[in-house]
Specification:
The complex is a heterodimer of chains A (88) and B (255).
Chain A lengths: L3 E2 L4 H5 L10 E4 L5 E3 L4 E3 L5 E4 L6 E8 L2 E5 L3 E5 L7
Antiparallel strand pairs in A: 1-4, 2-3, 2-8, 4-5, 5-6, 6-7
Chain B lengths: L1 H4 L7 E10 L4 E7 L11 E7 L5 E7 L8 E7 L7 H7 L5 E8 L16 E6 L3 H13 L6 E7 L8 H9 L7 E6 L16 H4 L11 E7 H14 L6 E6 L5
Classes of the chains: A mainly beta (88), B alpha/beta (255).
């Protein structure tokens, strides 16, 4: 099945977070692999968007959005490392 | 600029079409003026939203084609025959029309000429309209007068589907170190007198001195899912570090 990169989550996550999560480094809770969220495999031909680990293909992120609500499941990520401006 | 542009939640903005430019029989560039645009880095994209009078709306992502330039940005849209959004953008939309968008989006698939951590030579690999975000990088390099060696390998079906052909030719002919070298891979129809028969992208097309694994280039590959998969496989088997290969696939949500 065709999939996209984690980059494709940028818009939907940018609506929720003040920092860009696609450039953040996440650790897969299943296999321990770390990598940028932009490198995840995103399947969007479903009611929501599913991001899977490129190494073990377990689910990292599930995001469902309707008109006035979002559901975000991050249990597939054990840790997220976010770059922040040094002066904050 | 890139860092400033990725901070803060995304909000929808309304731009106005300032100009349109046909690039190929099926691809068109939209020049947009977007009041409140925070600037962008090369490689980022926007979400575009169309809303019908009955409230039905459809949303798609499009790469930004231009280097940062105040409130102005350019998108190049490939029209898909069965698409829901692209025919409107590539055919119906005219100068003066409003367009709703949000961005810039994505801090991963970006090249920043000012980033001292990224002085590596750059290998760009485009499949079809996957050229768009890579063209933004080529333009950003020129705008910043960067001397980082750039190589573009661009797969197209046939010579008439080359987007930005005139500009790429001019940049190829520009003298070094301002120039960018370009290799075309024709997958269906090669130009007359071409010494390479049409075919899929091969390991040979991606093995270019100056951008070999031992020269540790940064790699950006963009195109349809299968194409990007093939390119990433070739590069990894050739010995490139998978960690430096950045990819952007476009797939089932296109159109």
């Amino acid at each position: 099945m065709d999939y996209l990169d984690g980059n494709a989550l940028g818009g939907a996550l940018g609506e929720l977070f003040a920092v860009d999560v696609t450039a953040a480094v996440g650790q897969c809770a299943s296999c321990g692999t770390t990598g940028a969220i932009g490198q995840a495999r995103v399947y969007s031909n479903a009611p929501g968007m599913i991001a899977r680990c490129p190494a073990c293909s377990e689910v990292l992120i599930r995001l469902v959005r309707n008109e006035d609500r979002a559901w975000l499941d991050l249990r597939g990520i054990s840790c997220l490392q976010l770059a922040l401006p040094a002066d904050r | 600029m890139a860092r400033a542009a990725v901070l803060g939640r995304l909000n929808w903005l309304v731009g106005t079409v300032a100009a349109v430019r046909d690039e190929t029989p099926t691809a068109r560039t939209l020049v947009l003026d977007v009041p409140g645009w925070p600037g962008h880095a090369a490689g980022q994209h926007v979400d575009v939203r169309l809303t019908a009078p009955d409230g039905y709306s459809a949303q798609r992502s499009y790469s930004i084609a231009s280097a940062a330039d105040g409130n102005r940005l350019e998108l190049t849209v490939q029209r898909l025959a069965d698409g829901e959004v692209s025919p409107y953008l590539a055919q119906t939309l005219e100068v003066g029309y409003p367009l709703e968008l949000r961005g810039p989006i994505g801090g991963w698939f970006v090249w920043d000429p000012a980033d001292p951590a990224d002085p590596a030579p750059v290998l760009l690999v485009a499949g079809g309209s996957g050229i768009v975000p890579l063209m933004a990088m080529i333009r950003a390099r020129a705008a910043a007068a960067s001397k980082v060696p750039f190589r573009l390998v661009y797969s197209v079906r046939s010579p008439d589907t080359v987007i930005y052909s005139g500009e790429l030719l001019a940049r190829e002919q520009a003298s070094e170190p301002d120039g960018v070298s370009v290799t075309y891979v024709y997958t269906r129809t090669a130009p007359p007198r071409s010494d390479v028969p049409p075919g899929r992208i091969s390991p040979a097309a991606l093995a270019v001195d100056g951008w070999l694994p031992r020269q540790a280039p940064a790699v950006f590959a963009c195109g349809p899912t299968g194409y990007v998969e093939a390119v990433a496989g070739i590069l990894t088997r050739a010995g490139h570090d998978p960690g430096v290969i950045k990819t952007e696939r476009f797939g089932p949500t296109g159109g």
